[in-house]
Amino acid sequence: MQDPGSAQHEAAAPGVLSRHDELAARHPFVVWAWGLLHLDFTGIAFGALFFGWSLTPSLLPRDWLFQGLIGGLNAAIGYGVGTAVGWAVYRYFLATKSWWPPAPRILLAAKIGVVVGAVVASVVMLVYSAGWQRELAVLMDAEGTTTSGYIRTGGLSLLVAGAAISLWRVLRDLVRLVARYLNRWLRVPRNAAFPVGVAVVAFLAYTLVTGVLLNGLYSLANSAFSLQNNSTRDGVLRPLDPERSGSPQSLAPWDTLGFEGRNFVARGLTAAQLTAANGAPAEEPIRVYAGLETAPTTDERIDVVVDELERTGAFDRKVLVVIPTTGTGWVNPTAAEAIELVHNGDTALVAAQYSYLPSWISFIADRQKAADAGKALVDKVHERWLTKPPETRPELYVYGESLGTQAGEGAFDSLAEIRETVDGVLWVGPPNANTLWRQLVTRRDPGTPEVAPVYADGLVVRFADSAADISQPLGPWLDPRVLYIQHPSDPVVWWNPDLIFNRPDWLSEPPGYDRLPQMRWFPIVTFWQVSADLANAAGVPDGHGHNYGTSVLDGWIAIAAPDGWTQADTDRVRAVLVATAGTQGPEK
Protein backbone atom coordinates (compact mmCIF):
# COMPACT_ATOMS: atom_id res chain seq x y z
CA MET A 1 0.00 0.00 0.00
CA GLN A 2 0.99 3.64 -0.06
CA ASP A 3 3.81 4.44 2.33
CA PRO A 4 2.19 6.68 4.93
CA GLY A 5 5.45 8.47 5.48
CA SER A 6 6.37 8.95 1.87
CA ALA A 7 4.97 12.46 1.66
CA GLN A 8 6.11 13.56 5.13
CA HIS A 9 9.39 15.14 6.13
CA GLU A 10 11.22 14.67 9.40
CA ALA A 11 9.45 16.31 12.29
CA ALA A 12 10.70 19.75 13.18
CA ALA A 13 9.79 22.39 15.73
CA PRO A 14 7.56 25.21 14.51
CA GLY A 15 9.60 27.73 12.56
CA VAL A 16 12.59 25.39 12.29
CA LEU A 17 13.52 23.80 8.95
CA SER A 18 13.63 20.02 8.91
CA ARG A 19 16.80 18.33 7.66
CA HIS A 20 14.94 17.46 4.44
CA ASP A 21 13.83 21.08 3.91
CA GLU A 22 17.32 22.35 4.66
CA LEU A 23 18.88 19.94 2.17
CA ALA A 24 16.23 20.83 -0.39
CA ALA A 25 16.99 24.51 0.02
CA ARG A 26 20.73 23.98 -0.48
CA HIS A 27 20.69 21.27 -3.12
CA PRO A 28 17.27 21.19 -4.81
CA PHE A 29 18.44 19.22 -7.86
CA VAL A 30 20.04 16.52 -5.70
CA VAL A 31 16.85 16.11 -3.69
CA TRP A 32 14.74 16.01 -6.86
CA ALA A 33 17.01 13.42 -8.51
CA TRP A 34 17.00 11.28 -5.34
CA GLY A 35 13.21 11.46 -5.35
CA LEU A 36 13.21 9.76 -8.74
CA LEU A 37 14.63 6.66 -7.05
CA HIS A 38 12.08 6.47 -4.26
CA LEU A 39 9.87 3.41 -4.79
CA ASP A 40 6.35 2.52 -3.77
CA PHE A 41 6.16 -0.97 -2.29
CA THR A 42 2.82 -1.87 -3.83
CA GLY A 43 4.37 -0.84 -7.12
CA ILE A 44 7.34 -3.14 -6.46
CA ALA A 45 5.00 -6.09 -5.90
CA PHE A 46 3.07 -5.47 -9.11
CA GLY A 47 6.28 -4.75 -11.01
CA ALA A 48 7.64 -8.14 -9.98
CA LEU A 49 4.36 -9.76 -11.04
CA PHE A 50 4.48 -8.19 -14.52
CA PHE A 51 8.18 -9.04 -14.82
CA GLY A 52 7.42 -12.66 -13.97
CA TRP A 53 4.65 -12.75 -16.58
CA SER A 54 7.04 -11.37 -19.19
CA LEU A 55 9.40 -14.30 -18.58
CA THR A 56 6.83 -16.86 -19.68
CA PRO A 57 7.35 -18.20 -23.22
CA SER A 58 5.92 -16.49 -26.28
CA LEU A 59 6.06 -17.41 -29.96
CA LEU A 60 9.82 -17.45 -30.59
CA PRO A 61 13.01 -18.00 -28.57
CA ARG A 62 14.38 -14.76 -27.11
CA ASP A 63 17.92 -14.09 -25.98
CA TRP A 64 18.66 -12.34 -22.70
CA LEU A 65 19.00 -8.92 -24.36
CA PHE A 66 15.51 -8.83 -25.88
CA GLN A 67 14.04 -10.40 -22.77
CA GLY A 68 15.78 -7.79 -20.61
CA LEU A 69 14.24 -4.94 -22.60
CA ILE A 70 10.76 -6.45 -22.58
CA GLY A 71 11.03 -7.51 -18.94
CA GLY A 72 12.09 -4.03 -17.85
CA LEU A 73 9.33 -2.34 -19.82
CA ASN A 74 6.68 -4.65 -18.40
CA ALA A 75 8.06 -4.28 -14.87
CA ALA A 76 7.74 -0.50 -15.21
CA ILE A 77 4.16 -0.82 -16.44
CA GLY A 78 3.39 -3.18 -13.56
CA TYR A 79 4.93 -0.70 -11.14
CA GLY A 80 2.63 2.02 -12.47
CA VAL A 81 -0.41 -0.24 -12.11
CA GLY A 82 0.66 -1.12 -8.58
CA THR A 83 1.08 2.47 -7.47
CA ALA A 84 -2.35 3.32 -8.87
CA VAL A 85 -3.92 0.37 -7.03
CA GLY A 86 -2.09 1.26 -3.83
CA TRP A 87 -3.18 4.90 -4.03
CA ALA A 88 -6.81 3.93 -4.62
CA VAL A 89 -6.87 1.44 -1.75
CA TYR A 90 -5.26 3.95 0.62
CA ARG A 91 -7.46 6.84 -0.50
CA TYR A 92 -10.80 5.05 -0.37
CA PHE A 93 -10.24 2.41 2.28
CA LEU A 94 -7.17 2.56 4.51
CA ALA A 95 -7.22 6.31 5.10
CA THR A 96 -10.46 5.95 7.06
CA LYS A 97 -9.23 3.09 9.27
CA SER A 98 -8.00 3.77 12.77
CA TRP A 99 -5.52 0.88 12.67
CA TRP A 100 -3.66 2.27 9.66
CA PRO A 101 -0.76 2.83 9.53
CA PRO A 102 0.50 -0.13 11.55
CA ALA A 103 3.43 0.03 13.98
CA PRO A 104 6.71 1.13 12.32
CA ARG A 105 8.40 -2.24 12.88
CA ILE A 106 5.48 -4.06 11.24
CA LEU A 107 5.52 -1.68 8.28
CA LEU A 108 9.29 -2.12 7.94
CA ALA A 109 8.96 -5.90 8.05
CA ALA A 110 6.28 -5.74 5.36
CA LYS A 111 8.48 -3.60 3.14
CA ILE A 112 11.44 -5.96 3.57
CA GLY A 113 9.15 -8.90 2.82
CA VAL A 114 7.91 -7.28 -0.39
CA VAL A 115 11.44 -6.57 -1.63
CA VAL A 116 12.81 -10.00 -0.71
CA GLY A 117 9.77 -11.75 -2.13
CA ALA A 118 10.03 -9.79 -5.39
CA VAL A 119 13.73 -10.63 -5.77
CA VAL A 120 13.28 -14.33 -4.98
CA ALA A 121 10.25 -14.68 -7.25
CA SER A 122 12.10 -12.93 -10.09
CA VAL A 123 15.15 -15.19 -9.78
CA VAL A 124 12.97 -18.32 -9.70
CA MET A 125 11.10 -17.14 -12.79
CA LEU A 126 14.39 -16.41 -14.56
CA VAL A 127 15.47 -20.01 -14.00
CA TYR A 128 12.16 -21.35 -15.29
CA SER A 129 12.28 -18.93 -18.22
CA ALA A 130 15.71 -20.18 -19.32
CA GLY A 131 14.26 -23.70 -19.36
CA TRP A 132 11.26 -22.60 -21.44
CA GLN A 133 13.56 -20.85 -23.90
CA ARG A 134 15.56 -24.06 -24.33
CA GLU A 135 12.35 -26.05 -24.91
CA LEU A 136 11.27 -23.55 -27.53
CA ALA A 137 14.68 -23.68 -29.19
CA VAL A 138 14.50 -27.49 -29.37
CA LEU A 139 11.02 -27.24 -30.88
CA MET A 140 12.42 -25.04 -33.65
CA ASP A 141 15.81 -26.74 -34.07
CA ALA A 142 17.48 -23.53 -32.93
CA GLU A 143 20.35 -22.92 -30.53
CA GLY A 144 19.24 -22.71 -26.89
CA THR A 145 20.40 -20.52 -24.02
CA THR A 146 22.04 -21.30 -20.68
CA THR A 147 20.53 -20.53 -17.30
CA SER A 148 23.62 -18.65 -16.11
CA GLY A 149 23.64 -16.52 -19.25
CA TYR A 150 19.94 -15.81 -19.02
CA ILE A 151 20.28 -14.43 -15.47
CA ARG A 152 21.70 -11.28 -17.07
CA THR A 153 18.12 -10.53 -18.03
CA GLY A 154 17.39 -9.49 -14.44
CA GLY A 155 20.08 -6.79 -14.35
CA LEU A 156 19.13 -5.32 -17.70
CA SER A 157 15.42 -5.35 -16.81
CA LEU A 158 16.18 -3.48 -13.59
CA LEU A 159 18.00 -0.75 -15.52
CA VAL A 160 15.25 -0.46 -18.15
CA ALA A 161 12.51 -0.36 -15.52
CA GLY A 162 14.39 2.27 -13.52
CA ALA A 163 14.83 4.46 -16.60
CA ALA A 164 11.14 4.13 -17.55
CA ILE A 165 9.93 4.94 -14.02
CA SER A 166 12.27 7.93 -13.82
CA LEU A 167 11.00 9.24 -17.15
CA TRP A 168 7.42 8.95 -15.90
CA ARG A 169 8.31 10.87 -12.74
CA VAL A 170 9.98 13.61 -14.76
CA LEU A 171 6.75 14.00 -16.72
CA ARG A 172 4.74 13.97 -13.48
CA ASP A 173 6.94 16.70 -12.00
CA LEU A 174 6.60 18.69 -15.20
CA VAL A 175 2.81 18.49 -14.84
CA ARG A 176 3.09 19.80 -11.29
CA LEU A 177 5.37 22.61 -12.43
CA VAL A 178 2.93 23.67 -15.17
CA ALA A 179 0.03 23.50 -12.71
CA ARG A 180 1.94 25.66 -10.20
CA TYR A 181 2.63 28.35 -12.75
CA LEU A 182 -0.95 28.27 -14.04
CA ASN A 183 -2.14 28.84 -10.50
CA ARG A 184 0.39 31.56 -9.76
CA TRP A 185 0.40 33.53 -13.00
CA LEU A 186 -3.04 32.94 -14.51
CA ARG A 187 -4.90 32.45 -11.23
CA VAL A 188 -6.26 29.12 -12.38
CA PRO A 189 -7.81 27.40 -9.32
CA ARG A 190 -5.65 24.60 -7.94
CA ASN A 191 -8.27 21.91 -8.52
CA ALA A 192 -8.38 22.88 -12.22
CA ALA A 193 -4.68 23.67 -12.70
CA PHE A 194 -3.55 20.06 -12.38
CA PRO A 195 -5.87 18.61 -15.09
CA VAL A 196 -4.89 21.48 -17.36
CA GLY A 197 -1.23 20.71 -16.63
CA VAL A 198 -1.80 17.08 -17.57
CA ALA A 199 -3.41 18.13 -20.84
CA VAL A 200 -0.58 20.56 -21.66
CA VAL A 201 2.20 18.06 -20.95
CA ALA A 202 0.35 15.26 -22.77
CA PHE A 203 -0.09 17.49 -25.81
CA LEU A 204 3.57 18.53 -25.79
CA ALA A 205 4.73 14.92 -25.37
CA TYR A 206 2.45 13.72 -28.16
CA THR A 207 3.62 16.50 -30.46
CA LEU A 208 7.24 15.78 -29.63
CA VAL A 209 6.92 12.05 -30.23
CA THR A 210 4.67 12.04 -33.31
CA GLY A 211 5.43 15.40 -34.87
CA VAL A 212 9.15 15.62 -34.20
CA LEU A 213 10.64 12.34 -33.04
CA LEU A 214 8.75 9.88 -35.26
CA ASN A 215 8.84 12.15 -38.29
CA GLY A 216 12.52 12.73 -37.72
CA LEU A 217 13.21 9.02 -37.37
CA TYR A 218 11.08 8.32 -40.44
CA SER A 219 13.01 10.89 -42.49
CA LEU A 220 16.31 9.58 -41.16
CA ALA A 221 15.37 5.98 -41.99
CA ASN A 222 14.15 7.00 -45.43
CA SER A 223 17.44 8.77 -46.13
CA ALA A 224 19.52 5.90 -44.77
CA PHE A 225 17.72 3.21 -46.72
CA SER A 226 17.64 5.32 -49.88
CA LEU A 227 21.45 5.22 -49.75
CA GLN A 228 21.34 1.43 -49.57
CA ASN A 229 18.85 1.46 -52.44
CA ASN A 230 21.56 2.97 -54.64
CA SER A 231 23.99 0.15 -53.88
CA THR A 232 24.21 -3.29 -55.46
CA ARG A 233 24.75 -6.63 -53.75
CA ASP A 234 28.16 -8.22 -54.27
CA GLY A 235 28.14 -10.55 -57.26
CA VAL A 236 25.05 -8.99 -58.86
CA LEU A 237 25.71 -7.96 -62.48
CA ARG A 238 23.54 -6.27 -65.04
CA PRO A 239 21.59 -8.87 -67.06
CA LEU A 240 22.17 -9.02 -70.79
CA ASP A 241 19.15 -11.17 -71.67
CA PRO A 242 16.33 -9.08 -73.15
CA GLU A 243 13.84 -11.01 -70.99
CA ARG A 244 15.05 -9.03 -67.94
CA SER A 245 14.40 -5.46 -66.89
CA GLY A 246 17.64 -3.54 -66.57
CA SER A 247 19.11 -5.19 -69.66
CA PRO A 248 20.38 -3.05 -72.58
CA GLN A 249 17.01 -3.51 -74.33
CA SER A 250 14.95 -2.67 -71.24
CA LEU A 251 12.67 0.33 -70.80
CA ALA A 252 13.64 0.34 -67.09
CA PRO A 253 17.31 1.35 -66.81
CA TRP A 254 19.53 -0.81 -64.62
CA ASP A 255 20.61 2.03 -62.33
CA THR A 256 16.98 2.94 -61.52
CA LEU A 257 15.86 -0.46 -60.25
CA GLY A 258 17.12 -0.09 -56.69
CA PHE A 259 19.01 -2.57 -54.53
CA GLU A 260 16.28 -5.23 -54.40
CA GLY A 261 15.17 -4.70 -57.99
CA ARG A 262 18.68 -5.28 -59.32
CA ASN A 263 18.95 -8.38 -57.18
CA PHE A 264 15.61 -9.68 -58.48
CA VAL A 265 16.27 -9.26 -62.21
CA ALA A 266 19.90 -10.37 -62.12
CA ARG A 267 19.44 -13.54 -60.08
CA GLY A 268 17.43 -16.69 -60.67
CA LEU A 269 18.05 -19.71 -62.86
CA THR A 270 18.77 -19.31 -66.56
CA ALA A 271 17.14 -21.38 -69.29
CA ALA A 272 20.23 -23.60 -69.39
CA GLN A 273 20.09 -24.19 -65.64
CA LEU A 274 16.37 -24.93 -65.77
CA THR A 275 16.94 -27.39 -68.59
CA ALA A 276 19.58 -29.17 -66.52
CA ALA A 277 17.36 -29.23 -63.45
CA ASN A 278 14.19 -30.46 -65.19
CA GLY A 279 15.68 -32.58 -67.93
CA ALA A 280 13.64 -30.82 -70.63
CA PRO A 281 14.30 -27.76 -72.83
CA ALA A 282 13.36 -24.61 -70.92
CA GLU A 283 12.54 -21.05 -71.89
CA GLU A 284 14.36 -18.04 -70.51
CA PRO A 285 12.26 -16.78 -67.58
CA ILE A 286 10.98 -13.22 -67.83
CA ARG A 287 11.50 -10.90 -64.85
CA VAL A 288 10.11 -7.37 -65.07
CA TYR A 289 10.67 -4.70 -62.43
CA ALA A 290 10.44 -0.95 -61.83
CA GLY A 291 12.25 0.84 -59.01
CA LEU A 292 11.32 4.06 -57.27
CA GLU A 293 13.72 5.95 -59.55
CA THR A 294 12.44 4.35 -62.75
CA ALA A 295 9.66 6.95 -62.95
CA PRO A 296 8.45 9.80 -60.69
CA THR A 297 5.00 8.44 -59.77
CA THR A 298 3.38 5.10 -59.03
CA ASP A 299 1.23 5.24 -62.15
CA GLU A 300 4.20 6.02 -64.37
CA ARG A 301 6.22 3.16 -62.84
CA ILE A 302 3.36 0.75 -63.46
CA ASP A 303 3.11 1.98 -67.06
CA VAL A 304 6.80 1.12 -67.48
CA VAL A 305 6.38 -2.44 -66.19
CA VAL A 306 3.29 -3.04 -68.34
CA ASP A 307 5.22 -1.85 -71.39
CA GLU A 308 8.08 -4.12 -70.27
CA LEU A 309 5.67 -7.05 -70.22
CA GLU A 310 4.75 -6.26 -73.81
CA ARG A 311 8.37 -5.85 -74.87
CA THR A 312 9.48 -9.18 -73.37
CA GLY A 313 6.54 -11.15 -74.72
CA ALA A 314 5.24 -11.90 -71.22
CA PHE A 315 1.63 -12.19 -72.42
CA ASP A 316 2.61 -15.14 -74.58
CA ARG A 317 3.91 -17.19 -71.66
CA LYS A 318 2.10 -19.97 -69.81
CA VAL A 319 2.10 -18.18 -66.44
CA LEU A 320 2.18 -14.50 -65.45
CA VAL A 321 2.69 -13.72 -61.75
CA VAL A 322 2.04 -10.25 -60.29
CA ILE A 323 4.11 -9.71 -57.14
CA PRO A 324 3.27 -6.73 -54.89
CA THR A 325 6.49 -6.38 -52.92
CA THR A 326 7.45 -5.83 -49.30
CA GLY A 327 8.74 -2.48 -48.06
CA THR A 328 12.06 -2.16 -49.91
CA GLY A 329 10.82 -3.88 -53.03
CA TRP A 330 12.09 -7.31 -51.97
CA VAL A 331 10.78 -10.40 -53.74
CA ASN A 332 11.30 -13.78 -52.10
CA PRO A 333 13.92 -15.44 -54.34
CA THR A 334 12.76 -18.94 -53.34
CA ALA A 335 9.18 -18.19 -54.40
CA ALA A 336 10.35 -16.71 -57.70
CA GLU A 337 12.62 -19.64 -58.52
CA ALA A 338 9.99 -22.15 -57.44
CA ILE A 339 7.35 -21.06 -59.95
CA GLU A 340 10.00 -20.80 -62.69
CA LEU A 341 11.19 -24.35 -61.96
CA VAL A 342 7.64 -25.72 -61.82
CA HIS A 343 6.83 -24.28 -65.27
CA ASN A 344 10.35 -24.72 -66.68
CA GLY A 345 10.82 -21.03 -67.43
CA ASP A 346 7.56 -20.53 -69.32
CA THR A 347 6.82 -17.72 -66.90
CA ALA A 348 6.82 -13.96 -66.44
CA LEU A 349 7.17 -12.30 -63.03
CA VAL A 350 6.39 -8.63 -62.54
CA ALA A 351 7.00 -6.44 -59.48
CA ALA A 352 7.47 -2.76 -58.61
CA GLN A 353 9.04 -0.93 -55.67
CA TYR A 354 7.00 1.58 -53.67
CA SER A 355 9.26 2.41 -50.71
CA TYR A 356 12.85 2.57 -49.51
CA LEU A 357 11.89 1.28 -46.07
CA PRO A 358 12.06 -2.25 -44.64
CA SER A 359 8.75 -4.02 -44.05
CA TRP A 360 8.59 -3.37 -40.30
CA ILE A 361 8.90 0.39 -40.83
CA SER A 362 6.62 0.36 -43.87
CA PHE A 363 4.04 -1.51 -41.80
CA ILE A 364 3.93 1.43 -39.39
CA ALA A 365 4.29 4.30 -41.83
CA ASP A 366 3.40 3.08 -45.33
CA ARG A 367 0.55 0.59 -45.02
CA GLN A 368 -1.83 2.60 -47.18
CA LYS A 369 0.94 3.25 -49.68
CA ALA A 370 1.52 -0.50 -49.88
CA ALA A 371 -2.16 -1.18 -50.56
CA ASP A 372 -2.38 1.60 -53.15
CA ALA A 373 0.75 0.39 -54.94
CA GLY A 374 -0.48 -3.20 -54.95
CA LYS A 375 -3.83 -2.20 -56.39
CA ALA A 376 -2.23 -0.08 -59.11
CA LEU A 377 0.06 -2.93 -60.15
CA VAL A 378 -2.60 -5.64 -60.21
CA ASP A 379 -5.20 -3.43 -61.89
CA LYS A 380 -2.99 -2.23 -64.74
CA VAL A 381 -1.51 -5.64 -65.47
CA HIS A 382 -4.99 -7.15 -65.43
CA GLU A 383 -6.33 -4.45 -67.76
CA ARG A 384 -3.59 -5.15 -70.32
CA TRP A 385 -4.03 -8.92 -69.84
CA LEU A 386 -7.74 -8.59 -70.72
CA THR A 387 -6.85 -7.14 -74.12
CA LYS A 388 -5.14 -10.39 -75.13
CA PRO A 389 -6.97 -13.29 -76.79
CA PRO A 390 -8.38 -15.58 -74.07
CA GLU A 391 -7.08 -18.70 -75.80
CA THR A 392 -3.44 -17.52 -75.79
CA ARG A 393 -3.02 -15.22 -72.80
CA PRO A 394 -1.20 -16.60 -69.75
CA GLU A 395 -2.71 -17.81 -66.51
CA LEU A 396 -2.67 -14.83 -64.15
CA TYR A 397 -1.60 -15.29 -60.52
CA VAL A 398 -0.89 -13.00 -57.58
CA TYR A 399 1.84 -13.76 -55.05
CA GLY A 400 2.68 -11.87 -51.87
CA GLU A 401 4.66 -12.38 -48.71
CA SER A 402 4.51 -10.47 -45.43
CA LEU A 403 3.65 -6.82 -46.19
CA GLY A 404 3.38 -7.89 -49.82
CA THR A 405 0.19 -9.76 -48.91
CA GLN A 406 -1.27 -6.53 -47.60
CA ALA A 407 -0.29 -4.81 -50.83
CA GLY A 408 -1.86 -7.67 -52.78
CA GLU A 409 -5.08 -7.71 -50.78
CA GLY A 410 -5.38 -3.98 -51.45
CA ALA A 411 -6.08 -4.78 -55.10
CA PHE A 412 -9.35 -6.54 -54.29
CA ASP A 413 -12.53 -5.48 -52.54
CA SER A 414 -13.76 -9.00 -51.91
CA LEU A 415 -13.14 -12.69 -52.41
CA ALA A 416 -15.60 -12.60 -55.31
CA GLU A 417 -13.47 -9.97 -57.06
CA ILE A 418 -10.38 -12.17 -56.66
CA ARG A 419 -12.19 -15.05 -58.36
CA GLU A 420 -13.32 -12.80 -61.21
CA THR A 421 -9.85 -11.29 -61.75
CA VAL A 422 -7.10 -13.91 -61.44
CA ASP A 423 -6.47 -17.64 -61.80
CA GLY A 424 -5.11 -18.10 -58.29
CA VAL A 425 -3.50 -16.39 -55.30
CA LEU A 426 -0.67 -17.47 -52.99
CA TRP A 427 -0.16 -15.34 -49.87
CA VAL A 428 2.52 -16.18 -47.30
CA GLY A 429 2.86 -14.87 -43.73
CA PRO A 430 0.01 -12.32 -43.84
CA PRO A 431 0.07 -9.56 -41.19
CA ASN A 432 -2.80 -9.70 -38.71
CA ALA A 433 -3.98 -6.29 -39.90
CA ASN A 434 -4.84 -7.57 -43.39
CA THR A 435 -8.50 -6.75 -44.02
CA LEU A 436 -9.48 -9.72 -46.16
CA TRP A 437 -7.49 -12.21 -44.09
CA ARG A 438 -9.15 -10.94 -40.91
CA GLN A 439 -12.63 -11.19 -42.43
CA LEU A 440 -12.05 -14.78 -43.55
CA VAL A 441 -10.57 -15.87 -40.22
CA THR A 442 -13.36 -14.18 -38.25
CA ARG A 443 -16.00 -15.93 -40.38
CA ARG A 444 -14.28 -19.32 -40.27
CA ASP A 445 -16.35 -22.47 -39.98
CA PRO A 446 -17.57 -23.13 -36.42
CA GLY A 447 -15.30 -25.44 -34.47
CA THR A 448 -12.16 -24.67 -36.47
CA PRO A 449 -9.33 -22.91 -34.62
CA GLU A 450 -8.04 -19.45 -35.44
CA VAL A 451 -4.52 -20.79 -35.91
CA ALA A 452 -5.76 -23.28 -38.56
CA PRO A 453 -9.11 -21.95 -39.81
CA VAL A 454 -11.35 -23.55 -42.40
CA TYR A 455 -13.49 -21.15 -44.44
CA ALA A 456 -16.61 -22.42 -46.25
CA ASP A 457 -15.33 -26.01 -46.15
CA GLY A 458 -12.20 -24.94 -48.03
CA LEU A 459 -14.04 -24.71 -51.34
CA VAL A 460 -12.11 -21.61 -52.49
CA VAL A 461 -9.85 -20.31 -49.70
CA ARG A 462 -7.57 -22.49 -47.63
CA PHE A 463 -5.13 -21.91 -44.81
CA ALA A 464 -2.08 -24.10 -44.24
CA ASP A 465 0.78 -24.09 -41.75
CA SER A 466 3.26 -26.42 -43.50
CA ALA A 467 4.01 -28.32 -46.70
CA ALA A 468 2.27 -31.41 -45.31
CA ASP A 469 -0.80 -29.36 -44.40
CA ILE A 470 -1.03 -27.90 -47.91
CA SER A 471 -1.31 -31.35 -49.47
CA GLN A 472 -3.73 -32.70 -46.86
CA PRO A 473 -7.02 -33.68 -48.53
CA LEU A 474 -9.89 -31.46 -47.45
CA GLY A 475 -12.49 -32.14 -50.12
CA PRO A 476 -13.18 -30.28 -53.37
CA TRP A 477 -11.11 -27.14 -54.04
CA LEU A 478 -12.58 -24.95 -56.75
CA ASP A 479 -10.59 -22.89 -59.21
CA PRO A 480 -9.34 -20.23 -58.93
CA ARG A 481 -7.72 -21.20 -55.65
CA VAL A 482 -6.65 -18.88 -52.84
CA LEU A 483 -4.07 -20.17 -50.37
CA TYR A 484 -2.68 -18.56 -47.21
CA ILE A 485 0.41 -20.13 -45.61
CA GLN A 486 0.91 -19.11 -41.99
CA HIS A 487 2.94 -20.61 -39.15
CA PRO A 488 1.49 -20.94 -35.63
CA SER A 489 4.69 -19.26 -34.39
CA ASP A 490 4.80 -16.35 -36.86
CA PRO A 491 4.49 -13.09 -34.87
CA VAL A 492 3.77 -11.17 -38.08
CA VAL A 493 0.54 -13.17 -38.39
CA TRP A 494 -0.50 -12.92 -34.75
CA TRP A 495 0.69 -9.48 -33.61
CA ASN A 496 -2.22 -7.13 -32.98
CA PRO A 497 -2.70 -4.11 -30.65
CA ASP A 498 -5.78 -5.90 -29.29
CA LEU A 499 -3.37 -8.20 -27.44
CA ILE A 500 -3.00 -5.42 -24.87
CA PHE A 501 -6.40 -6.04 -23.26
CA ASN A 502 -8.02 -8.95 -25.11
CA ARG A 503 -7.09 -12.62 -25.20
CA PRO A 504 -7.23 -13.84 -28.83
CA ASP A 505 -8.79 -17.13 -29.82
CA TRP A 506 -5.43 -18.60 -30.82
CA LEU A 507 -4.25 -18.31 -27.20
CA SER A 508 -7.40 -19.97 -25.92
CA GLU A 509 -7.11 -22.95 -28.26
CA PRO A 510 -4.67 -25.88 -28.29
CA PRO A 511 -1.30 -24.63 -29.59
CA GLY A 512 -0.06 -25.17 -33.12
CA TYR A 513 2.79 -27.56 -33.85
CA ASP A 514 5.58 -25.10 -33.03
CA ARG A 515 4.19 -23.17 -30.06
CA LEU A 516 4.74 -24.18 -26.44
CA PRO A 517 1.55 -24.98 -24.50
CA GLN A 518 3.00 -22.96 -21.59
CA MET A 519 2.40 -19.73 -23.47
CA ARG A 520 -0.40 -17.80 -21.79
CA TRP A 521 -2.13 -14.50 -22.36
CA PHE A 522 -1.49 -11.75 -19.82
CA PRO A 523 -2.92 -8.23 -20.17
CA ILE A 524 -0.37 -5.75 -21.57
CA VAL A 525 2.52 -8.21 -21.15
CA THR A 526 1.68 -10.55 -24.05
CA PHE A 527 1.49 -7.59 -26.42
CA TRP A 528 5.07 -6.64 -25.62
CA GLN A 529 6.24 -10.24 -25.80
CA VAL A 530 4.88 -10.71 -29.31
CA SER A 531 6.19 -7.27 -30.26
CA ALA A 532 9.67 -8.43 -29.27
CA ASP A 533 9.18 -11.60 -31.32
CA LEU A 534 8.67 -9.42 -34.41
CA ALA A 535 12.30 -8.34 -34.22
CA ASN A 536 13.45 -11.94 -34.67
CA ALA A 537 10.56 -13.14 -36.84
CA ALA A 538 12.75 -14.32 -39.73
CA GLY A 539 15.76 -15.28 -37.61
CA VAL A 540 14.63 -18.85 -36.91
CA PRO A 541 15.03 -22.04 -38.97
CA ASP A 542 12.83 -22.84 -41.97
CA GLY A 543 9.30 -23.84 -41.10
CA HIS A 544 8.99 -21.55 -38.07
CA GLY A 545 8.31 -17.92 -37.33
CA HIS A 546 8.34 -15.78 -40.47
CA ASN A 547 10.74 -18.10 -42.30
CA TYR A 548 8.69 -20.14 -44.76
CA GLY A 549 11.54 -21.81 -46.63
CA THR A 550 10.48 -24.12 -49.45
CA SER A 551 6.85 -24.40 -48.37
CA VAL A 552 6.17 -21.77 -51.05
CA LEU A 553 6.90 -24.52 -53.58
CA ASP A 554 4.07 -26.61 -52.18
CA GLY A 555 1.87 -23.54 -52.33
CA TRP A 556 2.61 -23.02 -56.01
CA ILE A 557 1.93 -26.68 -56.74
CA ALA A 558 -1.41 -26.44 -54.95
CA ILE A 559 -2.67 -23.50 -57.02
CA ALA A 560 -0.67 -23.57 -60.26
CA ALA A 561 0.74 -27.05 -60.92
CA PRO A 562 1.11 -28.12 -64.59
CA ASP A 563 -0.86 -31.12 -65.80
CA GLY A 564 0.75 -34.42 -64.86
CA TRP A 565 2.78 -33.03 -61.96
CA THR A 566 4.02 -35.75 -59.56
CA GLN A 567 5.59 -36.02 -56.13
CA ALA A 568 8.88 -36.90 -57.81
CA ASP A 569 8.73 -33.57 -59.62
CA THR A 570 8.18 -31.80 -56.30
CA ASP A 571 11.13 -33.57 -54.70
CA ARG A 572 13.38 -32.69 -57.65
CA VAL A 573 12.47 -29.02 -57.56
CA ARG A 574 12.80 -28.83 -53.77
CA ALA A 575 16.32 -30.21 -53.99
CA VAL A 576 17.26 -27.43 -56.42
CA LEU A 577 15.71 -24.77 -54.16
CA VAL A 578 17.56 -26.10 -51.11
CA ALA A 579 20.82 -26.06 -53.06
CA THR A 580 20.37 -22.39 -54.04
CA ALA A 581 18.92 -21.19 -50.71
CA GLY A 582 20.77 -18.46 -48.85
CA THR A 583 22.51 -17.04 -51.93
CA GLN A 584 20.20 -14.10 -52.55
CA GLY A 585 19.74 -12.41 -49.23
CA PRO A 586 17.00 -12.27 -46.55
CA GLU A 587 13.78 -10.33 -46.57
CA LYS A 588 14.14 -6.58 -46.31
Q: Can I get a quick summary?
A:
With about 600 residues, the protein is α/β, with parallel strands linked by helices. The protein has helices at about 20-25, 30-35, 40-55, 65-90, 105-140, 145-150, 150-185, 190-230, 260-265, 270-280, 300-310, 335-340, 360-365, 365-385, 405-410, 415-420, 435-440, 465-470, 490-495, 525-535, 550-560, 565-580; strands spanning about 285-290, 320-325, 345-350, 395-400, 425-430, 460-465, 480-485.
How would you describe this structure to a colleague?
The protein is an alpha/beta fold. It has helices spanning 19-26, 28-35, 41-54, 64-92, 104-139, 147-150, 152-185, 190-229, 258-266, 271-278, 298-312, 333-342, 359-365, 367-386, 403-409, 415-421, 435-442, 467-470, 491-494, 525-535, 551-560, 567-580; strands at residues 286-290, 319-324, 347-352, 395-401, 424-428, 461-464, 481-485. The chain has 2 domains: 19-187, no CATH class; 230-489 and 549-580, no CATH class. A 7-stranded parallel β-sheet has the order 1-3-2-4-5-7-6, with helices on both faces. Helix 12 crosses helix 21 (551-560). The two termini are 49 Å apart. Residues 4-18 and 584-588 have low confidence and may be disordered. Residues 55-268 form the Alpha/beta-hydrolase N-terminal domain. Pfam families: Abhydrolase_9 (PF10081), Abhydrolase_9_N (PF15420). Residues 286-573 form the Alpha/beta-hydrolase catalytic domain.
